Amino acid sequence: AVLVESLLVFSVVLSVHAVVWDRFSWCAVALAVQAFYVQFKWDRLLQLGGAVFQFRGAANSGLLPASMVMPLLGVVMKERCRAAGIVYFERFGIVVASTGMLLALFLSVLAVGITKPVPTNTCILTGIAGSVIIYTMKHSLTVSEVIEVLEVLLIFVYLSMILLYLLPRCFTPGEALLVLGGVSFVLNQLIKRSLNVIKGRGDPIDFFLLVAVVGVVLLGLFFTVLFIFMDSGTWISSMFFHMMTAVLGLGVIMPWLYRLIQRNPLFWLLQFLFQTQTRLYLLVYWTFLAASACGVVFYQNAKRSSESKKHQASTITRKYFHFIVVATYVPGLIYDRQLLYVAAVLCLAVFIFLEYVRYFRIKPFGQTLRHLLSLFLDERDSGPLILTHIYLLLGMSLPVWLFPRSCAPKGTLPGAGALVPYSGVLAVGVGDTIASVFGSTMGEIKWPGTKKTFEGTMTAIFAQIIAVALILIFDSSVNLNSSYAWILASVSLVSLLEAYTTQIDNLLLPLYLQIMLMA
């Protein structure tokens, strides 16, 4: 299964390389080769318990698929923005690619360094790949860009040491690279933009995302340290939690956002949300769907009898939430993507805050949330945090947040790139959902080495093709320009990756589909 997963990732890398064909795509190929070899060293460390931190069990290290996400995203973003003539974002794409390669190399060197005896061949490969990447960076990046890349690496190292220690068994090494690498990059961007504020420059919704992500992470770190010294389950601690949340929100996060957007954040948000009648209709519709999702949770818990305390929700039951999320995102993508962008940021902040309430058992809702959500746990929620619903939201939202709007003057990219914002809907909302439902109910022929079925994968590909056809009918901004073969190949590769990967598919699949469609 690991070999097939690696083969699929290599297929994506070579597809991007064939389209771009520059020094950075060659670096991506070199990085993929060395990550393939180092991945087996990480797998061996996890099996023998020799890794520095406790990682999530029942999964391989996932180093290769995770290592290639940021570099490939940077490469395709650079190419799209170069074609559009937007130099600033072309350079930004180069920084993203270089940062991703350096973070992946760091994780590879770490694995090689703690493996005993030292693997000579893997060391040589890592050295060659590292030399190629550093040589390319030396001749491609300015001094300020090199400093920026090193800053992200430094933040990543410290953030990894803190969070992997505080949150054992929540991530595989690959998932840690993706999540903590992304948070490190966002934090560095926020610091950089805060120090270089120019009035009127920058979109407020981008600043809103940066501040929200960094704000909730800092909030979690603050309360984690605080509750080491006091019991979080008491009423006094809970009152202190709510009070300090308000103080940090109104006293730190709001002024920070005010400095960036040069206006009152609350007034700006209210004006933005109720700017048009369409937005008002969408907000009412989304409120109804959120209430429906809460209704599913309460109904499923009400069905749980006292005799079946260990009963868990079935796969089909969990996929109800995928259908609700698709129903949420598709109208937003068609009618108002900016509103969807901001609403997804708000929803992410609320999800993470509620997870803090559950994790720290904050009164009055902490224990209730623990009881309600325990029904929907699966083998991937083996750590102290429940992250699958947050990963689902991220998987649907990242293609919207990472869409290079400045490099798409008409609001959409040409060809298959027009489907980039729909990557989450296609890969997770449609593909993963249909594969799980049909595979678990009608599947008989299993893919070698996995529990996934041939019928589930084929049905998922077919469903995504139908979804693309429906998008063409209902979204007039999408014009594929006869790139149907590339779309079919992209959907097929990502669906096969879903069958073979043991990583969090809600997070990984939309990013790989976005890379393929942007290429």
TrEMBL record:
GO CC terms, sorted: endoplasmic reticulum membrane
Cellular localisation: Endoplasmic reticulum membrane
Keyword Transmembrane helix: yes
Any one biological process term the GO annotation gives: dolichyl monophosphate biosynthetic process
Alphabetized InterPro entries for the sequence: Polypren_kinase
Parts of the chain that traverse the membrane: 7-37, 57-76, 88-112, 118-137, 149-167, 207-228, 240-258, 278-299, 320-335, 341-361, 382-402, 422-442, 454-474, 486-513
Family indicated by similarity: Belongs to the polyprenol kinase family.
Protein name: dolichol kinase
Organism expressing this protein natively: Polioptila caerulea
Gene name of this polypeptide: Dolk
